[in-house]
Specification:
This protein is an all-alpha fold and about 80 residues long. Helices cover about 85% and strands about 0% of the residues. The longest helix has 23 residues. The mean pLDDT is about 95.
Length: about 80
Amino acid sequence: MTEAAIFVVFPLCLAIAAFSDLFTMTIPNRVSAILLGAFVLVAPLAGLGLAGMGVHLLAGLAVFAACFALFALNI
């Protein structure tokens, strides 16, 4: 069940984001919210500990901050 969630939710969200970005130049916030929610629910079931989840969330926050800075600078 855990593998099914990983191999269905992640690619589906990426496909939705790619098509939306291709045709409208925007990615809906709900795609990011679904990915975050799915990660929080599936990570413990996949055997990822609290420290591992924290590292993954911190890496996601760092990427978000870098991309937000580039967006704010209109790059």
